[in-house]
Design brief:
It is a single chain. With about 170 residues, the chain is of the alpha+beta class. It has five helices and seven strands, in the order βαααβββαβαββ. A seven-stranded mixed sheet has the order 1-2-3-4-5-7-6, sandwiched between helices.
Length: about 170
């Protein structure tokens, strides 16, 4: 399968938010409360993120992976690390369409990010997301011991932990 990677535009937000909602539902079912997943609204998310998308240019780059026909297969975003978080760059998001997980889409996007960022790269992943953790470990990342809470109590769930991974 041929995968083309290009930079996202604001016009791509609706389809990217639809992919994000599908990816979250597939990856986090049983981990994140169903009430949270059910409340995801891609149309609202696209509208809400438009201003942030414009304001983040120059600090964050969003990449799309598409097939030869233009079907959206995956999305990644990367950029400067959050204040006080150290390394040269951070991988903020990486999602593949659920039916494309395991086909190389995520690998293609991660390789593109690594080719664009010089130096160490960090990311955060939910502790219970074992599939993602294995993927990142195969991509050269290692858990470095830092945790932060991800609170789902407002949706009837627990406080989960995110783990910080770093690739030197």
């Amino acid at each position: 399968m041929r995968v083309d990677v290009s930079e996202m535009t604001e016009a791509d937000l609706p389809r990217v938010m639809r992919l994000r909602a599908r990816a979250w539902t597939a990856a986090y079912a049983g981990l994140v409360p169903a009430a949270y997943l059910d409340a995801m609204d891609p149309d609202t998310d696209a509208r809400d993120r438009a201003g942030w998308f414009r304001a983040s240019r120059g600090r964050v780059t969003d990449l799309l992976a598409c097939d030869a026909e233009g079907e959206l297969l995956g999305w990644a975003s990367y950029g400067l690390p959050r204040p006080g978080e150290g390394p040269a760059g951070e991988l903020f998001t990486l999602y593949a369409a659920p039916e494309r997980v395991g086909t190389g889409v995520g690998r293609c996007l991660v390789d593109e990010v690594h080719g664009r960022l010089a130096g160490p790269v960090a990311l955060w992943v939910l502790e219970g997301n074992h599939r993602a953790r294995r993927f990142y470990e195969r991509s050269g990342y290692r858990a470095e011991g830092t945790r932060r809470p991800d609170d789902y109590r407002a949706w009837g769930g627990p406080v989960l932990n995110e783990l910080r991974y770093v690739r030197d």
